[in-house]
Design brief:
The strands form 3 sheets. Strands 1, 2, 3, 7, 9 and 12 form a 6-stranded antiparallel β-sheet that branches. The protein folds into 2 domains: 1-58; 62-208. The N and C termini lie far apart (106 Å). The radius of gyration is 34 Å and the shape is elongated. It is of the alpha+beta class. It is built from 1 helix and 12 strands, in the order αββββββββββββ. It has one helix at residues 3-58, and strands at residues 62-64, 68-72, 84-93, 100-101, 108-112, 117-119, 128-132, 140-141, 146-152, 179-185, 192-197, 205-208.
């Protein structure tokens, strides 16, 4: 074999080897790029899921559907002697939220005034009750359904159901010009807070703005 033919053969082999190595690099780079892109998509989906979950937790799953109605023991005499004895309002599910279980084993409700704080939703069903208005008969608050929440503060006993224990049952009630707060804490979503300052009372039934 002549020297020129040998050189051409070696040159051909070198070019083929280079091509094989180049193809291998391209395949490896493509595989690596696929892995990186796939991880990026998974990370983006995870981030979107976390953001969606965070927004869901940050927004209240329950909404007050109408005004808050207060019932008072009297209208005459000194305003300081007037007690907020009952409260009623309607709730519904917020747009885009999953159904919320309103059973007393899943929902926590609390009441706070200037003197005491206590849970008002428990198994005895006397202090706070939740009644379906246009529901399907179960305890789930679903899209399009409405429930009535009724609270009887006379059932919130001052000596055993609030903390700190005030001096009398009268201290459990909110009075005109005082603030009170009712919170409903569902198993998912933010707390629904109803906070009002009582105005001067001129009727036994009033809408509390």
């Amino acid at each position: 074999m002549s020297k020129n033919k040998l050189m051409r053969k070696r040159t051909g082999m070198t070019g083929l080897e280079t091509a094989i190595i180049l193809v291998a690099f391209v395949i490896t780079a493509a595989a690596f790029a696929f892995v990186v892109l796939n991880m990026g998509f998974l990370t983006a989906e995870k981030a979107q899921s976390v953001i969606s979950s965070g927004m869901s937790e940050a927004s209240s799953a329950l909404l007050v559907d109408s005004g808050v109605i207060g019932e008072f023991n009297q209208t005459g005499g000194d305003q300081a002697d007037i007690d907020l004895t009952k409260l009623a309002f309607y709730i519904k599910l917020s747009q885009g939220h999953e159904p919320i279980d309103l059973d007393d084993s899943k929902l926590v409700a609390t009441y706070t005034n200037a003197r005491c704080h206590g849970e008002i939703y428990d198994t005895n069903g006397t202090c706070m009750t939740i009644t379906g208005v246009n529901d399907d008969g179960d305890s789930l608050c679903e899209t399009g359904e409405k429930f009535k929440v009724s609270i009887d503060f006379s059932e919130l006993l001052y000596d055993s159901m609030v903390d700190p224990a005030p001096g009398s049952q009268d201290d459990v009630y909110a009075h005109p010009y005082e603030e009170f707060r009712v919170e409903l804490r569902p198993s998912a979503g933010a707390v629904l807070t109803i906070e009002r300052q009582l105005p001067a009372v001129y009727s036994t039934i009033m809408t509390l703005e």
